[in-house]
């Protein structure tokens, strides 16, 4: 009986499902117990983290980990999604490779990234509200909020990079060097004048745990960064 073929999108959904499940397993089994151990100092936690064993491979269950990677070929508008055994010398049969070519229209990709940026904005506001309003659990929520702010900052950087990539491709397709140069200038300005100050806000918040810094970071994102991002998209 022939094997059932699945679409590329279905394969990608399965890739991300496996990746998320693996990362959640690693966090739950290895990272979370360290974070919640009140008996250990920060330095002891760092040392314990460095000595953690590798998690199990999702296929062979050996403590060699699983390597999930996404490589990009910008010239060909393509990405390769890979999941393989973490034992590079004697790997198990796990070796998933998905070649994905961007067949969708560039304007659809741009719109999709704009939606992602808006979601990040809402997530940032949510984390700020968690910090400000749940005062009875401020210590625990504050720790989670600091971690989440770092994740959201990295996500913002990734989405912004994707945005510039799609828009630049759109301009190159239409062969407009003036717009290309203007786009590069705008993206460079965003990185220096917006993204770096925002990351500094988060670093300062991580260090001091000051509610006012979190509020200022959210204000800066809404009032300064979002308008500049809309310039890039438009």
Explain what this protein looks like in three dimensions.
This protein is mainly alpha-helical and 234 residues long. It has 2 domains: 94 residues, no CATH class; 128 residues. The chain contains 6 helices and 3 strands. A 3-stranded antiparallel sheet has the order 1-2-3, with helices on one face. β1 and β2 form a beta hairpin. α5 runs antiparallel to α6.
Order of strands, widest sheet: 1-2-3
Number of strands: 3
Quickly count the helices. 6
Principal-axes shape call: flat
Span between N and C termini?
51 Å
> In percent, how helical is the residue content?
55-70%
Instruction: Give the assembly state of these chains.
Output: single chain
State Rg.
Answer: 21 Å
Largest sheet: 3 strands, antiparallel
Note the run of SSEs as H and E: HHEEEHHHH
Overall residue-averaged pLDDT value? 73
- Structure class: mainly alpha
**Which percent range describes the beta-strand content?**
5-15%
Outline the low-pLDDT stretches: 135-142
Task: Tell me the number of structural domains.
Answer: 2
List keywords for this structure.
flat; mainly alpha; three-stranded antiparallel beta sheet; 234 residues
Outline of the structure:
This protein has 234 residues and is mainly α.
């Amino acid at each position: 009986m022939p094997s059932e073929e699945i679409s590329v999108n279905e394969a990608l959904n399965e890739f991300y499902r496996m990746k998320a499940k693996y990362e959640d397993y690693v966090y739950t089994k290895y990272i979370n117990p360290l974070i919640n151990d009140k008996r250990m100092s920060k330095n002891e936690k760092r040392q314990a983290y460095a000595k953690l064993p590798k998690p199990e491979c999702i296929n062979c269950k050996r403590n060699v980990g699983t390597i999930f990677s996404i490589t990009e070929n910008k010239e060909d508008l393509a990405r390769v999604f890979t999941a393989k055994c973490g034992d590079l010398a004697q790997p198990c049969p796990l070796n998933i490779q998905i070649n994905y070519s961007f067949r969708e229209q560039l304007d659809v990709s741009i719109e999709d990234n704009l939606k992602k940026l808006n979601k990040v904005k809402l997530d940032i506001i949510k984390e700020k509200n968690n910090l400000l309003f749940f005062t009875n659990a401020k210590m625990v929520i504050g720790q989670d909020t600091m971690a989440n702010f770092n994740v959201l900052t990295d996500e913002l950087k990734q989405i912004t990079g994707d945005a510039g990539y799609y828009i630049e491709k759109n301009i190159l397709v239409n062969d407009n060097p003036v717009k290309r140069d203007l786009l590069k200038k705008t993206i460079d300005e965003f990185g220096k004048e917006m993204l770096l100050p925002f990351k500094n806000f988060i670093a300062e918040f991580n260090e001091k745990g000051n509610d006012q810094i979190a509020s200022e970071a959210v204000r800066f994102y809404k009032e300064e960064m979002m308008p500049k991002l809309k310039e890039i998209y438009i």
